[in-house]
Write a structure and sequence with these properties.
Layout: H1 10-28, E1 41-44, E2 47-50, H2 58-74, H3 78-91, H4 104-130, H5 134-147, H6 152-164, H7 168-186, H8 192-202
Antiparallel strand pairs: 1-2
Helix pairs in contact: 2-3, 3-4, 4-5, 5-6, 6-7, 6-8, 7-8
């Protein structure tokens, strides 16, 4: 109650909860008759939950697919792992409860899911590389940069992929973009690793 309505006293919080629970039930099952009860939402021992037998949550499915993908990758089933990573990534539609940017209990979950999504994208990119699907690898690393513009790992891998495919100018552009972003937005230089990579590319 405190997380949902921090300014309300106990009685007001309980009232708000009951009103919103009723609205949720009516929204999910608008034609249900009260005497028959509601199917999707369970209220038991003071706890409210969705019936897992009737309702699937994209968050839970996203995490489950991520785990299955990692297990297949561990067992060297790379094509299947990539399919599962793709399916997991498609479920991520943006920040968790983006319309509630400041609730503390949501922030923790949001950060966890965003971190997991970036991890899924990184595994996707590396599998594309391993399976010699270079354009898709480049696209995925670029998507990571769209999500995390300070990802040195993404910059480094893009430079290497471009250089390995004979596009040294593109590799240089990525390097210069990295330097510019770090200087203008963070006031620092990236790690020395990216300079070492660039030096090796120039010497080819």
């Amino acid at each position: 109650m405190d997380d949902l309505w921090p300014e309300a006293d106990t009685a007001a919080g309980e009232k708000n909860f009951k009103i919103n629970l009723h609205r949720l039930r009516k929204a999910m099952e608008p034609d249900v008759k009260k005497e028959f009860g509601y199917s999707y939402i369970i209220q038991k021992a003071g706890l409210v939950s969705l019936d897992p037998a009737l309702v699937t949550l994209d968050v839970e499915e996203f995490l489950a697919l991520s785990m299955q993908a990692a297990e297949n990758e561990k067992n060297n089933k790379l094509d299947r792992a990539l399919e599962l990573y793709d399916s997991a990534a498609e479920l991520y539609k943006g920040d968790y409860f983006a319309e509630e940017p400041y609730l503390e209990w949501i922030l923790r979950k949001r950060d966890l899911l965003r971190t997991k999504y970036i991890e899924v994208l990184e595994r996707k990119a590396r599998l594309h590389e391993e399976l010699d699907q270079i354009p898709k690898a480049v696209e995925t690393w670029q998507h990571i940069l769209d999500m995390e513009p300070y990802s040195e790992t993404a910059y480094q891998n893009l430079m290497i992929l471009y250089a390995d495919s004979g596009q040294k100018n593109k590799a240089r552009e990525v390097f210069e973009e990295c330097l510019l972003v770090f200087k203008n937005e963070l006031g620092i230089e990236p790690d020395k690793a990216i300079f070492n990579i660039y030096d090796k590319i120039k010497s080819r």
